Amino acid sequence: MESLDHASSVNLLAGMDTVSPALERYTNDVVLGNLWKRPQLCARDRSIVTLSVLIARNQSTELPFYLDLALDSGLQPSEISEIITHLAFYSGWPTATAAVKVTSAVFERRGMTVTQLPPAAVELLPVDKAAEAQHESTGPQRPVPPYAGSQRQPGRGHARPDTDRKCRRPACHNAAQILGIQLLRDQLGYCKVAR
């Protein structure tokens, strides 16, 4: 992984010192200098969590920096694409389309092409019937929210082969904590089973 100080041509700290020198110091020393270097999570996993939070909250200002950091940490363009697609169902289409716009510019700047992305239609992975049965027996039994439409199929959002279930758990969990959407809580019950 590239040094966090040089991870992006988008300077996260640009202008921060002229408005809030303390915030610049905390960002540089605590967030980038300490938090991102803790050994309990690798930078790739931290990138999945951070991108998920930024996308779910529609926080596009820092997204270019963290997209570069994610790519430098080993996350593939296909995985970032899947994270955005996956979160569209949990945090909303507008947050996903906003992330697409920012991500497109980062991919273009880095010379990434559509050939590095998963196709729109893929053969879905088989449903894990044991996990589904456990989810049904232990997970929340609530009616499907009206915004879920026909897309709500327990576990099927996890069935695309491009990003494995383990990688999606941080995305689901963080989106659920931030947004507090009941559908996400239902999916968290599934995610716990799918480990």
Molecular structure report:
There is one protein chain. The chain contains nine helices and no strands. It has 195 residues and is mainly α.
List the helices and strands and how they pair.
Layout: H1 16-19, H2 21-32, H3 43-56, H4 63-72, H5 77-91, H6 93-109, H7 129-138, H8 165-179, H9 182-193
Helix pairs in contact: 3-4, 3-5, 3-8, 4-6, 5-6, 5-8, 8-9
> Beta fraction of the residues?
under 5%
Q: What is the radius of gyration computed over CA atoms, rounded to a whole number of angstroms?
A: 18 Å
Order of helices and strands: HHHHHHHHH
Q: How would the global form be characterised?
A: globular
* Average of per-residue pLDDT values: 76
Largest sheet: none
Helical content stands at 55-70%
Number of helices: 9
Terminal Cα separation, in Å? 27 Å
Number of strands: 0
What characteristics describe this protein?
mainly alpha; 195 residues; globular
Brief account:
The protein is mainly alpha-helical. It has nine helices and no strands.
